[in-house]
Amino acid sequence: MKILITGSSSGIAFLTGITLSSRGHFVYMTTHTNEEAHNLKEKVDALGLKIMVFKLDITDNEDRKILNTLDIDVLINNAGIGVGGSVLDLDISDIRKNFEVNYFSSYDIVRRVGNRMIKNNKEGKIIIISSLAGIFPIQFLGSYCSSKAAISSMATSLRKELKTLKSKVKVVLIEPGAYKTGFNQVMIDEVDKNITKDSVFYHYKNKIYKDLNKMFQISEKKKVDSIVVKIIEAAESSNPKYKYRAPLLQRILTKIYLIFAK
Ligand SMILES: NC(=O)c1ccc[n+]([C@@H]2O[C@H](COP(=O)([O-])OP(=O)(O)OC[C@H]3O[C@@H](n4cnc5c(N)ncnc54)[C@H](OP(=O)(O)O)[C@@H]3O)[C@@H](O)[C@H]2O)c1
Fold first, then answer.
1. Residue 67 DSSP label
2. I want to staple 56 with a disulfide (CB 3.0 to 4.6 A). Which of 30, 68, 179, 191 is the partner?
């Protein structure tokens, strides 16, 4: 299969890309910057893998145009950022920045690739890396959590729309729990930075930072394997599930949360 992954220079998508390639798929691993593309190309070459690597800044409309020309069986919409800070502190421009990557640009990628898959009568798959944080919102991470809730909601709508067409294109949502890729630490550090002297939370700043660090230290899985396995399963299965969640404990806790949240 021909598989395109966004934001694949690091973390979950890096391991997913090289694993899919070593399993015989033709993989396009795309990156945020040219420098990352160069470094990633060196890494995959050193591994002896034939992977097409190029820059695809998903917020850049010109970069996204390449998606109108590529033959893609499976899209893995992974690139994401997390802007940390209180709902009462963050500026609307911060929220827009978060949504620009996690929602608007991702939405446009799904739109472009989805249309091509349907017009070419493909049995394609659109895999969206959302987050359990879209279901289970976390204090001081409201911008990130709401962006993931939004992209999950878009995926569900699209899935229902495709039933009208009796389309062979499948939509899959991947909802990872916390993994230690560095992604969460960047968000937590931003929470700290964004609680300034003007904030109503200023006197609680140290405690907030400490508590968030503790929460992620306890919850983060050190290895991303358990979620990568799910993404591979979704990409390769002829009949994938709609939602995949991992790791196990966070999956169970989310189920319990959803029962009591009703
Ligand atoms: N780690 C977790 O606990 C966790 C939990 C749930 C969901 N997720 C989701 O999983 C996905 C991957 O996260 P990760 O943990 O593997 O962290 P990561 O290594 O930081 O992956 C995010 C990737 O997205 C890239 N990216 C950011 N903005 C981009 C843009 N405009 N265009 C193209 N690429 C861009 C980043 O590149 P740069 O570094 O150059 O910006 C980075 O390679 C994200 O969508 C995240 O929300 C992660």
1. G
2. 30
Asked if residues 166 and 114 have their Cβ atoms less than 8 Å apart, the reply is no
Domain residue ranges of the chain, discontinuous segments joined by +: 2-261
What residues pair up with 243 in beta bridges, in sequence order? 173
CB atoms within 10 A of CB 133: 23
* 24 within 8 A of 90, measured Cβ to Cβ: no
Residue 164 CB neighbours (<10 A): 7
Whole-angstrom CA distances from 176 to 35, 128, 221, 245 are 27, 11, 10, 6
Helix (H) or strand (E) holding 55: strand 52-55
Reported as type and span, the H/E element at residue 18 is helix 11-22
Instruction: Give residues (CB < 6 A) around ligand 1.
Output: 6-7, 9-13, 32-33, 36, 57-59, 78-81, 101, 129, 131, 176, 178-179, 181, 183-184
Of 54, 53, 76, the closest CA to residue 1 belongs to 76
Q: Is residue 262 very low, low, confident or very high in pLDDT (cuts 50, 70, 90)?
A: low
pLDDT value for 236: 98
User: What pLDDT is recorded for position 206?
Assistant: 98
Name the CATH topology of 2-261. Rossmann fold (3.40.50)
pLDDT in tens, 209-260: 999 999 999 999 999 999 999 999 999 999 999 999 999 999 999 999 889 8
Q: Which residues pair with 128 in a beta bridge?
A: 77, 173
Q: How many whole angstroms from 181 Cα to the centroid of ligand 1? A: 9
